[in-house]
């Protein structure tokens, strides 16, 4: 797959690197040319360029920028994103005295705001639940099971493409329904990351009934 990445930071580097290892053609785009070049070289990407270059590069575009920036950013590229799969890995989480909370208020999601900002793009929420370091593992697996990656969106083609991308990384896709459910995926991140930051192991909170 041809994948353009909006952003040059942690997620651009590790997810982009995982996709390069999986055989995809990745172009890293940033507002800072030197940062885009450095990230692309670090992961062996096919190329680097501006944010506009990344938006126009492939059938898949990853938004790896702060959550509060993502809707406005894709709005600027709404025309070029027409028909493309836009993956939103952002987490709109902010610290409070009571742990992490959602800057969206939990009644809508950043993914929904991105879809509203670029109405002809096919937005998929995915890859927001793991720390970026996990994507540096060649084929992430834990206790013998491949990492599972929840994702949701409304366009069947975009969902198929995302599932194929996840599978190509050696992971297991977990389809979670339509884009309306992105609000739950974002809330899950706030809960799980909050627990993790508080010293707990949230992954042990979800055993299947068959384990009983
Ligand atoms: N890091 C994680 O473990 C992790 C895990 C799950 C989800 N996420 C989510 O993934 C997203 C990216 O996280 P990250 O860790 O990669 O962040 P990061 O390392 O801070 O990188 C953010 C990138 O966004 C760019 N950016 C910031 N403001 C921008 C703007 N107004 N216009 C265009 N580009 C802008 C930055 O460019 P400059 O360098 O020029 O500022 C940088 O390239 C976030 O929404 C985060 O919540 C992160």
Can you give a write-up of this model?
This protein has 212 residues and is an alpha/beta fold. It has a single domain (2-204), classed as Rossmann fold (3-Layer(aba) Sandwich), CATH 3.40.50.720. The protein has helices spanning 10-21, 33-43, 51-57, 70-76, 110-117, 156-168, 182-197, and strands spanning 2-6, 25-29, 47-49, 60-63, 85-88, 93-96, 99-102, 122-126, 141-142, 145-146, 148-153, 172-175. The strands form three sheets. It has an eight-stranded mixed β-sheet, sandwiched between helices. The model has no long low-confidence stretch (mean pLDDT 97). Bound molecules: NADP nicotinamide-adenine-dinucleotide phosphate.
């Amino acid at each position: 797959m041809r994948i353009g990445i909006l952003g040059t930071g942690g997620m651009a580097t590790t997810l982009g690197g995982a996709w390069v290892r999986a055989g995809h053609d990745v172009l890293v785009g940033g507002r800072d040319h030197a940062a885009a070049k450095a990230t692309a070289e670090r992961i062996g990407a096919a190329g680097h360029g501006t944010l506009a270059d990344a938006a126009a590069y492939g059938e898949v575009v990853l938004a790896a920028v702060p959550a509060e920036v993502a809707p406005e950013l894709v709005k600027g590229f709404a025309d070029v994103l027409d028909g493309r799969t836009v993956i939103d890995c952002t987490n709109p989480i902010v610290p409070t005295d009571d742990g992490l909370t959602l800057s969206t208020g939990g009644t809508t999601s950043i993914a929904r705001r991105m879809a509203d900002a670029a109405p002809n793009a096919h937005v998929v929420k995915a890859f927001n639940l793991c720390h970026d370091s996990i994507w540096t593992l060649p084929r992430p697996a834990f206790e013998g099971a491949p990492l599972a990656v929840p994702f949701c969106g409304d366009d069947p083609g975009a969902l198929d493409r995302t599932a194929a991308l996840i599978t190509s990384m050696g992971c297991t896709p977990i389809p979670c329904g339509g884009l309306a459910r992105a609000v739950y995926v974002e809330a899950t991140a706030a809960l799980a990351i909050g627990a993790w930051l508080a010293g707990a192991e949230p992954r042990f909170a979800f055993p299947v009934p068959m384990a009983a």
